[in-house]
Amino acid sequence: MDGKFDLSLHLPLSEETKHFIGENELKLMKSSAMLINTSRGQIVDQVALLNAIKTGKIAGAGLDVTDPVFRSIGSRRRRRSEPADLGI
What class does CATH assign to 7-67? Predict the structure, then answer.
């Protein structure tokens, strides 16, 4: 199958869905794919996600929310309209 395939997540957070998308799932995605998460931040293993983006395994991600661990990245607070700089 040629072309770009994106993945959009819409899941409640539970023990079964925490880190539902991790390194193994990200490896299965095309390098042109975008991961869109409008679920809770912990649905996606964000360390694995950041690594997948940095290494070109996927093209990027759109996150409605992040895992609380990643809220502390950067020293200044930003306005809601500003994108988060995750060092990508």
Answer: alpha beta
User: Residues with Cβ < 8 Å from 76, sequence gap 6 or more?
Assistant: none
pLDDT in tens, 56-67: 999 999 888 777
Q: State the first-to-last Cα distance of the chain, in angstroms, to the nearest integer.
A: 28
The predicted structure's pLDDT at residue 59: 92
- Cα 12 to Cα 55: distance, rounded to the nearest angstrom: 29
CA distances from 78 to 11, 29, 34, 74, 75 (A): 27, 31, 24, 9, 9
Collapse the DSSP code of 48 into the 3-class scheme (helix H, G, I; strand E, B; otherwise coil) and give the result: helix
* Cα–Cα dist 47/79, whole Å: 23
What's the confidence (pLDDT) of residue 43? 92
d(CA 58, CA 6): 10
Q: Is 61 helix (H, G, I), strand (E, B) or coil?
A: strand
